[in-house]
Design a protein that fits this description.
Elements (H helix, E strand, L loop, with lengths): L4 H10 L4 E5 L3 H14 L3 E6 L8 H12 L6 E8 L2 H10 L3 E4 L6 H17 L3 E6 L20 H11 L3 E4 L16 H11 L3 E3 L7 H9 L2 E6 L1 H17 L5 H17 L4
Parallel strand pairs: 1-2, 1-8, 2-3, 3-4, 4-5, 5-6, 6-7, 7-8
Helix pairs in contact: 2-3, 2-10, 4-5, 5-6, 6-7, 9-10
Bound molecules: 1,3-dihydroxyacetonephosphate (13P).
């Protein structure tokens, strides 16, 4: 059975660890994430971005996830990532998502609070956990400028946001960015510690692809309990496809899918910090 995202995250917090949330948008990405979880012996979050509705709809994703987790030995949450529409958020919850993210980070503080409070009502109605976001991040597909220090999450506002919205998990901006990093990423551990101490709730680090595992481990020690990963897996998948296609003339699609799935599972396996 799919579980609420906050349950997995809180269990990880008890042992000073975190849960990876891998972006999924079809059968292969889901199978890869579950295979990586099985091999690591750890819980996992399957994260479907609201921006991926052209790849599959909520109902198909929810039914596939529900079916696959029945045979899975570790706990799994089905998460709606970066949703900016309360209507879509409700739709996902209605068909079986167990974890929701309302992303109002692009709005001003008051509107973000107001909309996230409405998302809280929907989440409670369907027994889902809720993640909110405060601070600036670039777009999920890596486009847009990487956030500057001025856009990092403000700890005082974060405290107010958590008090006023009652989110279970808070996504923060502390030097992280979606997509490929230009140069070594600099994650502000001081800012993270302050956010952890002011909010007292689990923090999520988006844009975790390409952050060295030593840095991720430090971030986890400073309160990160959920790390979101997509880019490295997605790029490894297409690089592997190129390699397989170059190796064999008349490569069949079913073989390609299997090869890509194994490669995605291999990369995902490196994110169980
Ligand atoms: P990356 O694509 O940079 O790994 O980020 C994924 C993410 O944060 C999805 O919410």
């Amino acid at each position: 059975m799919l579980e609420r995202g906050d349950q997995l995250v809180r269990s990880a917090a008890k042992i000073g660890s975190c849960v990876p949330a891998f972006t999924i948008y079809n059968l292969e990405t889901m199978q890869a994430a579950l295979e990586a979880s099985r091999l690591a012996g750890r819980d996992v979050i399957l994260a479907f971005g609201a921006g991926y509705l052209e790849n599959a709809d909520f109902d198909v994703i929810a039914r596939m996830a529900d079916s696959l987790v029945r045979k899975h030995p570790y706990r799994v949450a089905l998460h709606l990532d970066h949703c900016r529409s309360l209507k879509l958020l409700k739709e996902a919850a209605r068909v079986g998502f167990t974890s929701l993210m309302y992303d109002g980070s692009g709005d001003d503080f008051a509107l973000n609070v107001q909309e996230t409070r409405e998302a809280r009502i929907i989440a409670d109605q369907y027994n889902c956990s809720l993640e909110g976001e405060l601070g600036g991040l670039n777009n999920e597909d890596g486009t847009g400028d990487a956030p500057t220090i001025a856009l990092y999450t403000d700890p005082v506002l974060a405290h107010r946001y958590v008090q006023e919205t009652n989110v279970d998990i808070l996504a923060v901006s502390v030097g992280n960015a979606h997509g490929e990093y230009k140069g070594a990423p600099h994650i502000s551990l001081d800012r993270l510690r302050e956010l952890r101490d002011r909010t007292s709730i689990p923090l999520a680090l988006h844009g975790s692809s390409g952050i060295p595992s030593a840095t991720l481990t430090e971030a986890v020690a400073c309160g990160i309990r959920k790390i979101n990963v997509n880019t490295e897996v997605a790029l490894a998948a297409t690089a592997h496809a190129r390699h397989m296609l170059a190796e064999k003339d008349k490569l069949r699609m079913e073989a390609l899918c299997k090869g890509i799935r194994a490669e995605m599972a291999r990369i995902m396996g490196t994110y169980f910090i």
